[in-house]
Amino acid sequence: MLENLENEIDLLKRHLTVLKLVIENEPIGIVKLSELSGIPQHKVRYSLRVLEHRGLIKPSFQGAITTKKTKPYLNKLEQKLKHISKELSQLQKIL
Questions:
Q1: Range of 34's domain?
Q2: Residue 73 lies in a domain
Q3: d(CA 60, CA 15)
Q4: Interval 8-22 mean pLDDT
Q5: Rounded CA gap, 58 and 43, in Å?
Q6: 64 has which bridge partners?
Q7: 28 within some domain
Q8: 20 to 30 A Cα–Cα from 25, which one of 2, 11, 17, 52?
Q9: Quick one: pLDDT at residue 2?
């Protein structure tokens, strides 16, 4: 039951790691992202596709860059993570 949740958390961590590196180093390409993150290039490529599909980054000739949606998304995500953290704390209390 928790395996799926753990997998989703790992995937979210990877996507956020890639997004943070794009924010800090834009424009940035796959090879550099892989070097900085230690994430294999094929996984970086997948994360970039997911982030682009969500409108958080876009490609340029020099590499990936952020969009105007990036900052609002991160603010909203932070609030959601706080809520989820509270919910998980309540689950722990049940045990």
A1: 2-68
A2: no
A3: 19
A4: 97
A5: 17
A6: 28, 59
A7: yes
A8: 11
A9: 82
pLDDT value for 55: 98
Six token digits for residue 80: 């959601």
Counting the structural domains of the chain, the total is 1
> Cα torsion at 66, 52, 19, 27 (round to 10°)?
-50
Cα separation of 24 and 57, whole Å? 13
Residues 6+ apart with CB under 8 A from 47: 14, 15, 18, 19, 39
CATH number of the domain where residue 35 is located: 1.10.10.10
Q: Which two tokens stand for residue 64?
A: 């990936």
Tokens of 62: 């020099």
Is 88 domain-assigned? no
Residue 85 lies in a domain: no
CA nearest to 15, candidates 35, 39, 61: 39
Cα–Cα distance list, 29 to 14, 71, 74, 76 (Å): 16, 20, 21, 26
